[in-house]
Specification:
The protein is an alpha/beta fold. Helix content is about 30%, strand content about 20%. The strands form 2 sheets. Strands 1-6-7-5-3-4 form a 6-stranded mixed beta sheet, with helices on one face. The protein has a two-stranded antiparallel sheet with strand order 2-8. Helix 3 crosses helix 4. The chain is globular. It starts with a helix and ends in a 6-residue tail after the last strand.
Length: about 240
């Protein structure tokens, strides 16, 4: 085979690989807060009570989970303890596509709402999770072409006479996604924001690490993993 044929074949394979690689959903970013107390003063990790929606969840199929793939940050598992979780969905501009996007995202919130108490709020200022129709911010060392990204931030909030360590999420969904892929990215990223801080190795799970041709619904393994996460200790939601 001639040099040029080899070169053309290599280039074709490289471009195909690059196009597949660009579909990988790069997520999971921590934005440090400016005014957090020192780490050594953070609350000790403790276990919260399960919300009834998860406490009542039973897997009759014994499908297992991918809990071993979840890598919590130093604050502990990213568990919500104050319910309902307040979700803000960026409102549409006056285009059919934006209306379609919002309806799809609200549908995803309802899907996950079967397993954790959620409420949609009108103000981003009071939201625990903000879902934004924006390309993920450019970050050094990450691919430019990303389908979505989940970013969490730690902060302190007043809960009566107590100061509690808390977190909030911003979920960025690339507006270039369309159809079933738009919904798939939203379903995946929202799963991260609910606490699944890792990826499955199975294409049949929503938290699979890459986009697939036929995006799956929320799987039994997704919920089994979510329940195990909410049974773990965390510093979040506890008093300083």
């Amino acid at each position: 085979m001639s040099f040029w044929k080899v070169t053309r074949r290599f280039r074709a394979v490289f471009l195909l690989a690059l196009s597949c690689f660009s579909l990988i959903i790069l997520t999971q970013v921590y934005t440090p807060a400016a005014s957090l107390p020192p780490v050594d003063s953070w609350p000790s990790p403790q276990v919260h009570s399960l919300p009834p929606t998860l406490a009542n969840w039973q897997d009759s199929t014994d499908s297992g989970d991918y809990f071993d793939r979840i890598k919590p940050p130093k604050v502990g598992h990213l568990i919500w303890s104050k319910f309902p979780i307040r979700v803000y969905v960026q409102p549409p501009v006056n285009t059919n596509r934006s209306l379609e996007w919002v309806e799809a995202v609200l549908g995803i919130v309802r899907e996950w709402g079967v397993y954790l108490p959620l409420v949609v709020v009108d103000s981003s200022e009071v939201a625990d999770i903000k879902i934004l129709i924006q390309a993920p911010p450019l970050r050094q060392g990450l691919l430019r072409s990303r389908s979505g990204e989940s970013v969490y931030e730690l902060y302190t909030r007043n809960d009566g006479d107590k100061t509690v360590l808390s977190h909030r999420f911003s979920v960025y969904l690339n507006p270039n996604q369309v159809g079933k892929y738009m919904a798939a990215v939203a379903r995946h990223e929202f799963g991260h924001s609910l606490g699944i801080w890792g990826h499955s190795l199975m294409e049949t799970d929503v938290l699979y690490f890459a986009q697939v041709r036929n995006p799956p619904p929320i799987s039994v393994k997704d919920i089994n993993t979510l329940k195990r996460i909410y049974e773990q200790p965390t510093r979040l939601g506890w008093e300083f």
